[in-house]
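S.,

Sequence below, as promised.
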Amino acid sequence: MARIGFVGLGTMGAPMAANLVKAGHAVRGFDKAESARAAAAARGVPVVADLARAIEGAEAVVSMLPDTPDVEAALLGPGGVAERLAPGGIVIDTSSIAPAAAVRLAERLAERGLAFLDAPVTGGPGGAEAGTLGIMVGGAPEAFERARPILEAMGRPRRMGPPGAGQATKLCNQIVVAQHLVAVAEAITLARGLGLDPEAVLEVLTRGAARSWLMETFGIRMAREEVAPAFRMALMLKDLRLAQEAAFARGVPLPATALVSALMLAQAAAGEAELGHHAVIRVFERLRGRVAGEERGEG
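The prediction came back faster than expected:
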């Protein structure tokens, strides 16, 4: 079993760290937010109040942070992982960041004698709880094999290629997720407009060719106008931005992603970036003059 420093104990990180503890690894978790540390401790994760203590004596560090600058600060910043993790250690970043940034991190950490894997995940909080996350890994084969017991305690890992390949795969995943959510939202909006019961429509759709995990998980939330985040719209917009930047650099057209991004940006512009990504349905409801159960002209 490994000695692991876990950095980032939010909605995803806390259950992931808890599963490492359950698997027998010696974990010390850190998050800047006291509330996040308290929530992780309630799950049985040993927590510490500063990054240095989380890294001290660790063989591996796992990070789960919001965006590229957060990861770079934790790994390469003053007093960060690169300065404190002993040579021979391995860094596993499960955040969603730019593929090019993952390549830079791998290079910089290699200069310190540290192995690096970019290992973003999919499956949401439910998958994090159950330890069934899909884990897309970029990095050297030998580093992947060393990290396998850690990764398998959190989900189902697959090595996709060299550094950056895990993040590139995650961007592909997010394109499908975002476009699918918009399709479900549009279908529910049409169902309402035609006088149908959205929940009844979803029940039928999930019995046939349209069935999917996303529809089953988020369709009912859309139909019931439940917009609390499982995954925040702000983070989905960040991932779609990264996908479009990567595509632009390679001359790859993503016209449907551009349209979905515009719809989700409309939600953010309405002050709703902190709602769940499935709350994109509110954009369609606004277009037909209905938001939060109020028809245009009523009330």
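Residues 292-299 have pLDDT under 50 and may be disordered.

Coffee later?
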